[in-house]
Amino acid sequence: MGVLRRVAAALDGFVLAIFGVAILATLLPASGTASDVLHAVTVAAIALLFFLYGTRLSPRDALDGLTHWRLHAVVLGCTYLLFPLLGLVLRVLTPTVLTDELYTGMLYLCLVPSTIQSSIAFTSIARGNVAGAVVSASVSNLLGVVVTPLLVVLLVTTTGEASVDASAIGDILLQLLVPFLLGQLARRRIAGWVQRHASATKLVDRGSILLVVYAAFSVSRVQGVWSVLSPWRIAAVVAVCSVLLAVVLGATVLIGRLCRFDRADRIVVLFCGSKKSLASGLPIASVLFAGQPVGIIVLPLLIFHQIQLVVCAVLAARYERQAIRDAASTS
Questions:
Q1: Are 274 and 312 a contacting pair, CB within 8 Å?
Q2: Does residue 216 sit in helix, strand or coil?
Q3: Which has the least CB within 10 A, 22, 76, 214, 246?
Q4: 115 touches 279 (CB < 8 A)
Q5: What's the whole-model pTM score?
Q6: What is the C-alpha to C-alpha distance for residues 211 and 33, in angstroms, rounded to an integer?
Q7: pLDDT in tens, 194-246
């Protein structure tokens, strides 16, 4: 009963909302014009999210985030060293547990950048170092445009020509960095209003994540990804992704402690170092694996992305409650 109570406590409204949105997208996916509208709304929500981050962070905090090189190096190490090594180890699961295409997908998910939006949103919810998360996640994605294709060429057998559209860099700058800088410029005028309406900011944090979940499940439903493989193979991928995430979460917690980071920075390592970006991974895969079964190859990334959102939502809520308790005990 004690275990059941802990599980029920962890499944707060936000986590239940993630499950609900995933089910809704599976039953009623957005397609055609609705998909285009969903994409536009999601982009706008993420831009608003980063604008609000800009208004909430003082220039001093933002500068500290830029200069915290040890933190960023650790996050990049988790993303582009720890994950690829674990991906290579997963080779032992072929062909009994994973087919060759599914193993390629598992290895590929280990090579893509960290998420930006959800990493920063969860760091914010958990009361971590948001400025550090903004820089770490953004640098991971900018480097990923070059590093991910290079790692794929080195580690993955592919007949596709490895090249990436340079416009991805422009998209990151336009959708994330520009709104953040605009928020910094507007901070003096509206920072007080943002602080007084913290609940609205929290709604943007969590609402943007729900939009990403709905969009991802809609794409998988429309493209028929779930019907390509047998239920046994899908269950195997879910199990492998769950174990991979558990190992990485444990490693990031340990690394944060070994580096003697404070609580706020350990949260950044946990959430930025354990994530993999569906938004970056899908378009890169469409180029790198042209002419191959892309739907199957990106399936592990799709599944891992959803699992990480649910698990990290639970962790973020737990950290948030702990921070509230600590603040209450010291007041």
A1: yes
A2: helix
A3: 246
A4: yes
A5: 0.72
A6: 16
A7: 777 777 777 776 787 788 778 777 877 777 766 767 888 889 999 999 999 99
